[in-house]
Amino acid sequence: MKHADLRRIGVIGPAGNMALEWELPRHLPLGFAINHSRVGRPGDALVTRESLLAMAEQVDRAALDLVRARPEVILYGCTSGSFVGGPGREAQIADRITEVTGIPAFTTSTAVLEALRAVAARSVFMVTPYPDDVNEHEIRFLEFHGFSLTGWDSFRCDAVRTISSIDSEETAAMVLRNRDAARRADAVFLSCTNLLTFDQIPRLEAALDRPVISSNQASLWAALQRVKAPPAGVGRLFSTPAMASGPSAPTPKAAS
């Protein structure tokens, strides 16, 4: 196979993110490749709303760097970085990428919404690595789009490096410590593209009898939908009818 024969997915990720580059390529269908570009943030990689918004300001350069690889679609692979702009604005960064490059784009937050709808979830139990001010933004984001929370828990990391040090077994253990709240939900959501989750999703789905959606899993699933590729991933999400029918449109609740 030659480079020219490969179909490509572009990913723009935070400079400190290592989980995306590890998990996504290992589950691509034959003939696909992922090309990455990175965006940094001020404040020594602190996890704050302000640093996440500042990171998004670099997206034009990162997107233009990817154009040379000629991807069919571009993912802005940061969950918190695509919802902290405010409920209903999670697609704005993707729109900007498309405007700059002419290539269809989407964000991880949009992918998560589509994935939760694909498994028919209306309530979720959520685990995040974020500090509480970012968690509050995510709760409002989910509620705006019609999802209720049966509970949530967090590692409350204030820096990217701290998130990177979380073992996937620690994430699974946090979910299982909240087993009752997780079972009351229609699905479990593991938020953050810098959390390793793929090796724990089958275990958690078996233990809880609930679909488990992670940021990286939803991002891969949504990317493969958009390029009409065969399903290749972990968890119940990849066996849903939506995998064959394409992405669903967001249905936020009406403004009051």
From TrEMBL:
InterPro entries per UniProt: Iso_Racemase_Enz_sf, MaiA/AMDase
Superkingdom to which the source organism belongs: Bacteria
Name of one Pfam family that matches: Amdase
Protein name (record): Aspartate/glutamate racemase family protein
UniProt source species: Roseomonas alba
